[in-house]
Specification:
about 220 residues, alpha+beta, Lipocalin, 2 domains, 5-stranded antiparallel beta sheet, rod-shaped
Amino acid sequence: LDAPTGGQAQSNPHPVLMRAQDNAFLPNRYRFRVKECFALGASYGDISAERAYIRLESLSCVRHDGKAIDVPVKGYVVGEDGKAGMRGRLVSKQGQVLANSLLAGVGAGIGQAFQQSATTISTNPLGSVGTVEPGKQLQAGVGIGVGKALDRLSQYYITLAEKMFPIIEVDAGRTVDVVFTKGFSLDADSVSGEANTYSDIWRRGREVQKKSIEPYKE
């Protein structure tokens, strides 16, 4: 994952695909069968924290009868350190581009110096006039050409650096926790082949414990 950190990173995040390796933990120690389901997330990076934040977009599962289910969900990803987001490596390529711009600017200055050394400037009431000294036309021409070319190259590198932005690099295959911030429902028999409402879960729990469905009769 290369999470962008630019100004539009949150509005144009990068997609992330995650696979559930275990069933979900519900309140009161209940479990929900979502193992091997796929979760699709959207990621963006934060330079100050050097972390990639992932918000959940959808959850996809396949029922036992082969029918696929895809539902929108809301949530976030927690890293191995228990904090929101995943710690990654800050990677920036702007330094090399700026160094190239600096070298091109120095070359442009040297070219202008060659041009000026071959030019004589005379001042009159109408202004200043530059005249190329006899025998130094080649030096002046090379100086002008090199200076302008390297100046354009320096401007190109500056424009390129403005379009670049650092990224947060995160390795694939890392184990994270997914936290759902809003409840969602899957169709009946969606994953486990049984109804999975809270009432059904409570009823099955009472049956496993061999307790009455009506607690007040216990």
